[in-house]
Every structure is written in structure tokens, then in C-alpha cells.
Amino acid sequence: MPKTKQQKEQMVDELAEKLSRIKSAVFTRVSGYTMEDADALRTKGREQGVELAITKKTLLVRALEKAGVKLDINQLTGSVLTSLGYEDEVSPAKIMADYAKGREGVELIGGILEGAYVESDSVKALSQLPGKQELLAQLVGSLNAPTSGFVNVLAGNFRKLVYALNAIKDAKA
């Protein structure tokens, strides 16, 4: 059943509101997209704060213009899957790059980063970066390294003392 003009305007408003809150978005051309693929991607996306949507390109371009992003509709060809990342900039690119690996008919066509349209090469490069959780883990490891090294140095002296005392005990026994 076709949507009314009012319904389409409401969809554009909702999408524009979402686009104004995102940290990044990725546009992916998909063909042969099944419900199983959609369910798996949505589940993976929810875990990482990414929302997936398939929207008519004309409505998507209108919503982007409302959100302040200039995009030519000719840059979006085929069926376009939009991934909206709310928590970090890398997650949508990572999810869609992983999904595109080894699949024909799936291609990253661009995205939005810092309020501007970026080409597919930039999205692919973004997908190679570590995510927010990985960076936090690296930071914690870097902060913890000097402390754990100091503890190991102090423990080493006590270990050597214990080895020496055991050697004396064994020699006297």
C-alpha cells in the first residue's frame, strides 16, 4: 500500500532527527538482502549502538538535507542500506565492512562523518581503525603497564630471596 504524503513527511522528519544525533553513518548498496541477513545485522548493530534502515533514496536525501548534509541522489544507486552509529564513529563502518566481506552484491558506497559526506575509500579506511572499546582497552593496558612492571620488579627480589632460602635449606638437609 503506497504511503501518503503526510506519512512520507513524518518518515523524513524522524530520519532527519536520527541523522542529527549520529556520530557517523554508512551507506551500503545491497542486493540479495534476506531477512536472515537483516536479523543478524540488526542484532550485531544493537550490541554496538548501530541502527540499520532501508529507506527510499529520495526520502533519505531529503532527510539528509534537513539534517544539514548535502548529498546528490546520483551518488546512491541500487538498494541502499543505511547504518547509523550513535556511540562511536567506527562501529557502522566495521559492521558493514565485515558484512560485505565475501558477499557479492554488497558494496560500501559512502557515508557521513562529522556532518559531511565521505566516499567509500574513507569508509573502508575507517573500518580498519580500532573501535571505541578496543581503544579503551589499549589505554587501560598502557596505564596499567608501569604499575604491573613495578610490582613484578618488587616481587622478583622476594622470589630470589625465597629461592636462596630454599637452596640453603636443601643444602643443610
Protein model, in words:
By secondary structure, this protein is an alpha+beta fold. The chain folds into 2 domains: 5-129, Ribosomal protein L10, N-terminal RNA-binding domain (Alpha-Beta Plaits, 2-Layer Sandwich); 130-173. 58% of the residues lie in helices and 17% in strands. The protein contains 6 helices and 5 strands. The chain has helices at 5-21, 35-47, 57-66, 91-100, 120-128, 132-172, and strands spanning 24-30, 50-54, 79-85, 106-113, 116-118. Strands 2-3-1-4-5 form a 5-stranded antiparallel beta sheet, with helices on one face. Helix 1 crosses helix 3 (57-66) and helix 4 (91-100) crosses helix 5. The longest helix has 41 residues, at 132-172. The protein is elongated. The N and C termini lie far apart (94 Å). The model has no long low-confidence stretch (mean pLDDT 85).
CA distance, first residue to last residue: 94 Å
User: Would you list the SSEs in sequence order as H and E?
Assistant: HEHEHEHEEHH
Q: How many separate structural domains?
A: 2
Question: What spatial form do the alpha-carbon principal axes imply?
Answer: elongated
The SS-based structural class is alpha+beta
Give short descriptive properties of this protein.
173 residues; alpha+beta; Alpha-Beta Plaits; five-stranded antiparallel sheet; elongated
Short summary of the structure?
With 173 residues, the chain is of the alpha+beta class.
Please describe the topology of this protein.
Blueprint: H1 5-21, E1 24-30, H2 35-47, E2 50-54, H3 57-66, E3 79-85, H4 91-100, E4 106-113, E5 116-118, H5 120-128, H6 132-172
Antiparallel strand pairs: 1-3, 1-4, 2-3, 4-5
Helix pairs in contact: 1-3, 4-5
